[in-house]
Automatic annotation (TrEMBL):
Pfam families tied to this protein: GntP_permease
Keyword Transferase part of the UniProt annotation: no
Membrane topology label: Multi-pass membrane protein
GO CC, alphabetical: plasma membrane
Family statement drawn from the similarity comment of this UniProt entry: Belongs to the GntP permease family.
Predominant location: membrane
InterPro entries referenced in this protein's UniProt entry, alphabetically: Glcn_transporter
PANTHER family: GNT FAMILY GLUCONATE TRANSPORTER, HIGH-AFFINITY GLUCONATE TRANSPORTER
Protein keywords: Cell membrane, Membrane, Transmembrane, Transmembrane helix, Transport
Protein's cellular compartments: Cell membrane
Protein name (database record): Gluconate transporter
Molecular function per GO: gluconate transmembrane transporter activity
Amino acid sequence: MTTQLVLAALAGIAVIVALIVWLKVHPFLSLMAGAGVMAIAAGMPYTELFTSFTTGFGTTVAGVGLLIVLGSIVGTLLISSGGADVIVDTILDKTPLQRLPWAMALIAFVVGIPLFFEVGVVILIPVVMYAARRANLPVILLGIPALAGLSALHGLVPPHPGPLIAIDALGANLGLTLGLGLIVAIPCVVIAGPLLAKVQAKWVPIPARELLGSDENTRQSDRRPSFGAAILVVLLPVILMLARTVVEMAGQEEGQIGRAVVFLGTPLIALLITVVTAMFLMGFNVGRSRAEVGSLVGSALPPIAGILLIVAAGGGFKQTLVDSGIADAIASGIAQAAIPPLLAGWIVAVLIRLATGSATVATITAGGIMAPLAAGLSPSHTALLVLAIGAGSVFLSHVNDAGFWMVKEYFGMTVGQTFKTWSLMETVLSVTGLACVLLLGLVV
């Protein structure tokens, strides 16, 4: 029976890989088809082919989906008001020439907290080009630190979709994962960003191209928010969720103040408060009318429809893994092989990432497979397992990853140069993330 379940998992994953990589089918349909094939191969009745899938789909939308929607609204308000530009401009204006790579990493780290990776790239690449041209520096010297910051936050820190998916699948504490994720992300960004960029700039010493456009079309107000207001909107959900974790770890959640902090730090409440704050600071305070703010909030929803469907389908795939007994069978095999759970989660995510080119699909699949093992872990190690999967999900971006081609075209590099810079950076970031997770696993 165990052999049948493992083969069923391999068949489902093979279908997903084949549909995404060879037939170019959208990941939503690929995950749905893979879940169906896996259910049949595992011996589930055909009449219940998608019962587990629809259950997991709905549960994921109710949990992770709402957080992604709220995060998208915050990001849209931050961009459209010029708040993201204020953060970038303020940091750049106070940075000496020799510190520019570190400044770009810091900007990406801060701006990357509320923004999806693709949005962050669109925002920061014109800044990278402008700064590199102004300072007469190789574009890689500034571009790689910016990309490292965005990629680390994308893979390791909620409220990005990948970490949220893994947190949901493994039942991890969001605030604790957020805190540990920020700790892991800092050395990842430093090593895979400014330090690695110094070497890569010698390998690929290309100058910055003409500016590839900017986000000027998103600025519809005459006034821009202050630096303090922009930073507050970025960090508010982080502060609220971390405060909840501190209160819970201190055992103070039963007191009147403790209950209030725990409530305000609930992910849904924290992001909802941030949305309202952003509507005022990034909307009304910069001269927008109520209708304009409402329109901006609405404009944040269509671009994330695809992400929501993929994430929800991933929840359905994960539930099928669990209900069919496949996840338990694979987890049992990993336990018998004596592979440490943190390393096993990273390896599974790496393999799916290499096959599909999708960090999201890698996180979804690895989270579902590792869920039974997470049940026996402490809260801190469950959070570290989320981070190990997140680190594995960004390993070696190559030709089957849309991000590979986006970076190649933005920087005007050849395929070989993109491998030497972007792909290597992602690999170094992933391995550094694993090393940090394993080290933390020894002390927490």
